[in-house]
Amino acid sequence: MKISFTTLACPAWGLDEIVRRAVEYGYDGIDFRGMAGKMAIYELPEFSTGLEQTAGKIRSAGLAVSGLSSGAKLYDKNPAALDASVGEVARYAKLCEALGCRIIRVFGGKFEGMAKSGCIGTAVATLRRMSQAAKKITIAVETHDDWINCELLVELLDQAKVPNAGILWDVHHPYRFLGQPPRQTWDIIRKRVCYTHIKDGRSLGEGKYEYTLPGEGDVPLMEIASLLKSGGYKGWLTLEWEKAWIPQLPEPQIALPAYAAYLRQLAG
Question: What's the CA gap between 228 and 103, in Å, rounded?
């Protein structure tokens, strides 16, 4: 397994610093989720008119783009929002071609009080549209929001029957919000996992929690890594350090090297 981090960890950094720090800290790749304060990276010069130069800069540094984390959703009450999500995936797919990336992350979306069966039907239809827009790029649906129920994600993929879709196992979410042991989660999704998000954290009680530096929380990351390795997973271990959303988290200069060393142990 190789290790990477999403750029949520370093929301103020530009491309040059992201690449330099990734090499310095010992990462193998970068997952782009925004850059320099802008989430839609395809609107930035580095990923539009300067895309070829960006791809060359990343390759020359010996790095890969492990994934592109979109904000696209499979379910929304508003059909126009789903059209926009499909369009977003198409834009990211073009970036993937230039960057040599094989993964686009998407969310399932929130049910917002709607019947689960109807939400699944809409999500299946949207996933099929995204599958066509992404062509040979894999759509990775994250264990997130109302889709932390992994059996629901498997049902979604079984119904959609598209060749280029899988599950992004955010290892924190089913463990924290469902209280589901990693072994149980893995047994449900093991055949579908194509990508991971790794982070540690601890419960604060009363439904509250906080993210922590590696080894300081209660997420059984060693067990999770063992499950992945024994199950034949050869994909990325990707740190998702949500500094962009939670400014009080430790700075990237602290979190990124700490997690790089820890993830390297997990991947070994």
Answer: 18
Which tens digits make up the pLDDT trace of 114-166? 888 889 999 999 999 999 999 999 999 999 989 999 999 999 999 999 999 99
Answer whether 82's CB lies under 8 Å from 127's CB.
Answer: no
* CA atoms of 207 and 203, how far apart (whole Å): 7
Instruction: Residue 211: give its domain's CATH number.
Output: 3.20.20.150
Q: Look up residue 179 and give its two tokens.
A: 């209280």
Predicted model pTM: 0.95
Rounded to 10°, the helix 79-99/51-60 angle is: 50
Q: Report d(CA 144, CA 87) in Å as an integer.
A: 21
Q: What is the CA radius of gyration of the chain?
A: 18
- Could you tell me which of 118, 166, 125 has the C-alpha nearest to residue 146? 118
Give CA angle at 137 (6, 88), nearest 5°.
Answer: 65
Phi/psi zone of residue 194: left (φ > 0), alpha (ψ -120 to 50 degrees), beta? alpha
